[in-house]
């Protein structure tokens, strides 16, 4: 794979041609969130499974309340209560002429009833007002009797949720390829499915390399900096849909790095390292990664490359270990690392999941700048920016330095200046990758 320089697209194509979708597994509903369905889900139980009331009120016959008003209410005999979760009235009880059944929201519509009159349209069965009456009747024994005055008429089916009005047995509930989000989990649960077959979320192991790195909360000494990359990239992996494990910082020692990565392969579908791929630490990381896992496995190994991009020129990619686990080695500067993740790791994660929307959305926007932006010839530059959707403009944030993490935290977009662009004047229209 060795060549002088790779384009951004060539590097990405090589990654996507290497990663393979994870094998489907059956997961419990809570664990399937964010995953991609592998099989169509067909409804087996009608939803709702029976005619039920959408209101607290009284189940009535239409003819009995026709013409009812405040002045001339319909007076009905209450033959019993129907609560949510109950089987309804007794088998031998039917709402007959001049009768009504007190019913709660979600309770099954009793035999003989054709509609539900909301309690607010009645006297609640007493002179104490609707709300008080419903509270009083909530503890009434099954089969309790009394009278209720109805002040309005209703049409057939009023305030009744009919059986199967949502879905019927045999309907397609969810199509293969659907993303299992909260509404989909709700539907699956509602039709009685406790598990579903999906492609699982990939397990991503993230580690930083560098003897100068210490963990946040510890005291800095001369020449040390805090390890921010492993935190940022672990969060980015979760944002992409993965299950992410942050290993932290590993010193610039080939044996230590090799041992750490080998230990992590058991729980990794993809490994991401940051740091040690540029001149200086290059030989140490190359030495470590070239022999990670099973050296006798054909196709294993990491190829270190130079890409025609800024930031993020040095990159590494390949597969390691007996399972050919993909590994992406990213630069160590915070902005280079994050931009590289968005361009290469995020699509790889989503490809493993079986998703089709691999990339962040890209839009065209006008540069809102006071003076021209410059870009090195032959490189695709990615600048941090803020995007104004209403105005259709994008404004650079911070400078082009790959260490300016504060500017990255303010940005919600990447401004893309193509390889053949060396100067972009104010008002120039360009591609913008939306990060949020």
Would you identify the regions where 5 or more consecutive residues have pLDDT less than 50?
Answer: 127-144
First and last CA, distance: 34 Å
Question: Helical percent range?
Answer: 10-25%
Q: For the CA atoms, what is the radius of gyration? A: 32 Å
Give the strand order, joined by hyphens, for the main sheet.
Answer: 16-13-17-21-20-18
Structural class: alpha/beta
* Total of DSSP H or I helical runs spanning 4+ residues: 9
Characterize the structure shown.
The chain is α/β, with parallel strands linked by helices and 436 residues long. The chain is 20% helix and 29% strand. The protein is built from nine helices and 28 strands. The protein has helices at residues 8-18, 62-65, 130-137, 182-190, 229-239, 254-264, 282-289, 334-353, 405-410, and strands at residues 25-28, 36-37, 41-42, 52-53, 57-60, 74-82, 99-103, 115-118, 146-150, 160-161, 172-174, 195-199, 203-209, 213-214, 225-226, 243-250, 270-274, 301-306, 309-310, 314-320, 325-330, 362-367, 373-374, 380-388, 393-396, 413-417, 423-424, 429-434. A six-stranded mixed β-sheet has the order 16-13-17-21-20-18, with helices on both faces. The chain has a five-stranded mixed β-sheet with strand order 8-5-7-6-9. It is elongated, with a radius of gyration of 32 Å. Residues 127-144 have low confidence and may be disordered.
Which characteristics define this entry?
five-stranded mixed β-sheet, 436 residues, 20% helix, 9 helices, elongated, six-stranded mixed β-sheet, 28 strands, alpha/beta
